[in-house]
Input
Amino acid sequence: MPKIRNRFLFGFVVGYHVLLLGLLPFALGVSSWAAWGLFLATYAIGGLSITVGYHRLYAHRAYQANPVLEWMVLLGSTLGFEMSALNWSHDHRLHHRKVDTDEDPYSIEKGFWYAHVGWLFQYERKFDASLVPDLLANPRVARQHRWFIPLTVAVNVGVFLVGWWLTGPLASFFFGFLLRMAMIHHCTWFINSLCHTFGSKTYARELSAVDNALLALVTFGEGYHNYHHAFASDYRNGVRWYHFDPSKWMIWLASRLGLARNLRQNNSLTIRKSLVRRDRKMLLHSLGEHTAPLARELAERLEHLAHRFDTDAASVREKLAELRQASASRRRHLRREVRQLHASLHRQWKEWLRLTRTIGTHYSLAHHH
Output
């Protein structure tokens, strides 16, 4: 039996789940469009405050926010019952720094259920101020941390009273509190468990984190977790146009409204260069374990193509830097050279995908680009 360190938290989580199940038959009797609307509204506000605020703003500094937006997410996050922004971000930064090790607060290496929820009861936080100096210096984060419990009680009581007026006391308590809190909790926990278990390793195959498009649908875009671990400072998790990432859209909209600025993102060339570098290291290590002539030939091709890609990528950066300083008469020529280099890199990228798939076919190496 694992040791329960955080007994109050254990009792709270178990208690509200028991209450949720116990009240379910009665709640179905008072179910209405207004009750479900209350659930969806509070779930969206609480969930987006966690993803847009706690995760991408505070834990990863993927953008900067106006104080108005900060207070919106700091207050909205109290609907999620997920600690203060300071503690949440501290644990998450530690997770990224020590991922898949014993020091990872919710390491998947300790089991699916430990990563999902067990860590909350067993984890002993040793607060390291050096992980969050920027947040300690942020007066809004510090104030929310200091007054987290009173703020959480006040916001949730206010929501309950509004819900009572709209739907009645039982519907408000069940749909606007219990069900909303359980949904936000489990969706957050699934990122730690399911998104380190089931999905594709599109960007960082050496990590346990995976991309899971289905989970992105209920976590406001957080399901593209392999990309996130590979490029944690990007304000986007879903980088393709078809990726469902409402957190990204909310941050972009906030920037249009003057509430956010300095949105950080990686361009496609940076992403591909990183993938080539990661794949090269891993595949050469795997091929080095084989002595067959085919393995040596594939390793040579891999090295040659990686070198070409790296050289052309460096040339693009040099040409773009030169373009910024060039005279008007010189710019047309430089733009043509940049377009040619991009076309060459695109062809090399396709060749790289074919080569790595060939290696995967012959030597059973998973490939998911």
